[in-house]
Every structure is written in structure tokens, then in C-alpha cells.
Amino acid sequence: MANTEEGSGDIEVFREEEVREMSGLKSGKNYIEVTCGCTSRRYGDAVGRLRVFIDGDLEISCECTPGCQEGKLTPAAFEKHSGRETAGKWKNNVWVIMDGEKVPLMKTALLKYYNQASKKVNGVGRPPARAFHRDEFVRCCTCNKERRFRLRSKEECRNHHVASLDPNWICRDHPCDRISCDDDEERASRKAYRGCSRSPTCTGCTSCVCFGCEVCRFSDCPCQTCIDFTRNSKD
Description:
single chain; 235 residues; alpha+beta; two-stranded antiparallel sheet; 20% strand; disordered N terminus
């Protein structure tokens, strides 16, 4: 199992031989994290931290310059942000360091969960209850700033659902991110990236917008939306 620096209760995401030579390796619950980068002939190397989740999600925290405000990016968005001249081929252009060498993601084992999830979305194998849910935002009633919620699991969908129904929701109530009203709101350019698997800046399509499924609706929720979904699913 990959070396663990964030707790002993983590599950095995990759075999040790698949990732042991990777620079900056850390592991946590349902993910591993490694140093990554993308090279531009004009700007040089943009470096970040790639987090690979067992559900196939890929997330990069950009560290291209001290104080970079881009925050968490998809690999495609990170490739574009780095100034890479041949953007659009992030599997080849985003790299990790293995045994001191830059190795494209597509030549590592890091994409195996991403590829499995893609096959399910494209109809190869048994599809999941819902292909994808894009990121959503909830506004704080105190500072009026919008905060991002990732919706990659039923638990994350429940967290967003509860927050969106609470008229008194505030920043410090966020269940996943330690934020307060003093923290900056995401820039508009960053908000455009909501995790759609079809297009990084998609404004809403059938791949990422869900109008109700077993992942994002809850039989024990008293809201009318969930009541209607539960009733209709039984008919």
C-alpha cells in the first residue's frame, strides 16, 4: 500500500509498486496525492498537487506561484492555466515525477480509476446510478459569499442538499472545507469550472446536470422535492 501520512484508517487505493517512486506521495481516505506539473515553453514548469480519488475524480491544487489564487482545478483547467501551448491533451501534458523523471499521467497507473469511471459513463459495463453531478454552490447568509460543494458521492450530495435547504447556512457550517467568512470567495473565472466530464467550463448539460436520482434524493428527507422523487420512483 502507498505510504500514509494522513491517518492509519485509509484503504488501499494503489499497490505500492504502482506509486512508490512518485515524488511527494501522500495518501488519505479514498485518495492519494502526488506532486505534478505541466510545462510551457514560454513560462516553464507550473507545479501543483494532484489528488486522485478512488471514484475516478482528479483534482489539482495549483502551486505555480506563491499565493496562486486558482485553488483546486481539473487537469484540463490546470493544463490551460499553466500556459501549455498544446492544451487539450492533459493526459500527455500533465506529468508526475517518478524516480527523478517527468512521466506523463497516461504512462502511470494514476488514471485507472478515471478510465474505469469514463467507461461506465460511456456505457461500457454496468452504469452507476448516476453518471455525474457537477459542483454546486451555496451562499452564506452572513457574508453573502458562495462556497463550492463537490457532489461525487451520496454523502457529498446529502451535505449540499442539507446546506441548500438551510436559510441560515454560514461558511463555518461547510462539512468538508475549513472556511470562514474571512476567506476569499472563488473568483468568477474559477467558478466556471464545475467538474463536467464533457467540458471543463460547461454551463450545464445532460452529462452533469441532474434533476433527481437515487444519489442526490433521499427517502428520509422531509423536503417536497425528495418526497415527490420517492413517491414517483415507487410508481
